């Protein structure tokens, strides 16, 4: 089937089967164009949980489809590809517990820790955080959530993205350390798990120096999953939605170089917008989902095979939802 025929078949199937499609900003154009709603992980989860269609096709990475299922357990959620975010895959409940054990050995009791997990984590990790009274956060509300979590008087155990944890700590004038890297956790307010995004690690201060030299007056916008020194050297640091707003508000003649995933950057503006990397910063897992996968999944719903449906145990859903609810309450 050609792409045009596939697209038509997808639109027809989604209409007859009452399926909503949502796509993350980092999805390929061929998938992105078909979506009823596009956004960042939090916007998508909120929209999808409120949507009234019985079936949802989530084009993104695994933890995102899980977030909808946590928020709306009655909804049938499918993913054309159950692709796992590299950062989310860096932590599971075993590693989470291991970090706590390392900190206990260093003299910080489990009861003295308040865990906060970035939304880029599995339902099981969110549940472990929820059981300890902790929170989920996103890159746009991490500062607010950490401020609230600190009211407990405990140290923050921030998982899994060390860069986001370090960037927020710096912005708030707090001390951070990476658990297990040899630094003293007793001196830190935010204890970061040693995970990272393999895509946002692409960007270096040298890239910023290069662009500033080549185009005097250029602005640099980066995502807080980038390294601390990269964010420090940027003019603007924000989540994907915040970067989009920032760039769209710029006059067209204003040059801007952006440090985030390539699919999103290329859709932003055709002129005066540059990718802050000499290599294409494409997220391999986000790029796994194709138009054909979307078609195949719809077909499996039509034929009653229900492939790639997200399911979460009741206990995990309950505790993960507790951690998410604490975020929404703020
Ligand atoms: Fe995960 Fe990074 Fe890909 Fe986002 S860009 S889905 S954080 S690996």
What's the shape? Answer: globular
- The overall number of domains is 3
**String of helices and strands:** HEHEHEHEHEHEHEHEEHEHEHEHEHH
Give the N-terminus to C-terminus distance in angstroms. 48 Å
The biggest beta sheet is recorded as: 5 strands, parallel
Total of DSSP H or I helical runs spanning 4+ residues: 14
State the CATH class of the largest domain. Answer: Alpha Beta
**Approximate helicity band:** 40-55%
Considering the protein shown, what is the CATH homologous superfamily of the largest domain?
NadA-like
Features:
330 residues; alpha/beta; Rossmann fold; 5-stranded parallel beta sheet; 4-stranded parallel beta sheet; 14 helices; globular; binds iron/sulfur cluster
Notes on the protein architecture:
The protein has three domains: 3-85 and 286-311, Rossmann fold (3-Layer(aba) Sandwich), CATH 3.40.50.10800; 88-198, NadA-like (Rossmann fold); 200-275, 3-Layer(aba) Sandwich (Rossmann fold), CATH 3.40.50. Helix content is 42%, strand content 15%. It has helices at 3-17, 29-32, 41-50, 62-71, 93-105, 123-131, 142-150, 162-171, 205-214, 228-232, 240-248, 262-268, 291-302, 314-329; strands spanning 19-24, 37-39, 55-59, 76-78, 113-118, 135-137, 155-159, 176-178, 190-192, 219-222, 236-237, 256-259, 273-275. The strands form three sheets. Strands 6-5-7-9-8 form a five-stranded parallel beta sheet, with helices on both faces. It has a four-stranded parallel beta sheet with strand order 2-1-3-4, sandwiched between helices. It has a four-stranded parallel beta sheet with strand order 11-10-12-13, sandwiched between helices. Helix 2 (29-32) links the parallel strand 1 (19-24) and strand 2 (37-39). The chain is globular. Bound molecules: iron/sulfur cluster. Iron/sulfur cluster is lined by residues 26, 61, 85-87, 120, 197-199, 225, 261, 283, 285-286.
């Amino acid at each position: 089937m050609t792409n045009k025929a596939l697209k038509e078949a997808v639109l027809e199937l989604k209409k007859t089967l009452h399926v909503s499609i949502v796509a993350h900003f980092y999805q390929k154009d061929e998938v992105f164009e078909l979506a009823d709603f596009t956004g960042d992980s939090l916007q998508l989860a909120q929209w999808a949980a409120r949507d009234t269609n019985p079936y949802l096709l989530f084009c993104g990475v695994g933890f995102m489809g899980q977030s909808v299922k946590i928020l709306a357990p009655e909804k049938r959620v499918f993913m054309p590809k159950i692709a796992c975010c590299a950062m989310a895959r860096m932590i599971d409940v075993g590693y989470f517990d291991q970090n706590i054990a390392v900190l206990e050995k260093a003299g910080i009791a489990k009861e003295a820790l308040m865990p906060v997990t970035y939304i880029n984590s599995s339902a099981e990790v969110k549940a472990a955080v929820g059981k300890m009274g902790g929170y989920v956060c996103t890159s746009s509300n991490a500062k607010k959530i950490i401020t609230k979590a600190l009211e407990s008087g405990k140290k923050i155990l921030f998982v899994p993205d060390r860069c986001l944890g370090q960037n927020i700590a710096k912005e708030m004038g707090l001390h951070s350390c990476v658990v297990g890297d040899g630094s003293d956790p007793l001196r830190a307010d935010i204890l970061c798990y040693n995970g990272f995004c393999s895509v946002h690690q692409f960007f270096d201060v040298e890239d910023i120096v290069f662009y500033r030299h080549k185009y005097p007056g250029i602005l640099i916008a980066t995502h807080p999953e980038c390294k601390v020194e990269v964010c420090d050297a940027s003019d603007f640091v924000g989540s994907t939605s915040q970067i989009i707003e920032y760039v769209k508000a710029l006059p067209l003649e204003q040059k801007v170089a952006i440090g985030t995933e390539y699919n999103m950057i290329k859709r932003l503006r055709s002129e005066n917008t540059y990718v802050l990397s000499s290599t294409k910063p494409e997220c391999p897992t986000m790029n796994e989902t194709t138009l054909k996968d979307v078609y195949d999944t719809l077909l499996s719903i039509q034929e009653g095979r229900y492939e790639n449906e997200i399911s979460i145990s009741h206990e995990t859903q309950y505790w993960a939802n507790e951690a998410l609810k604490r975020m929404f309450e703020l």
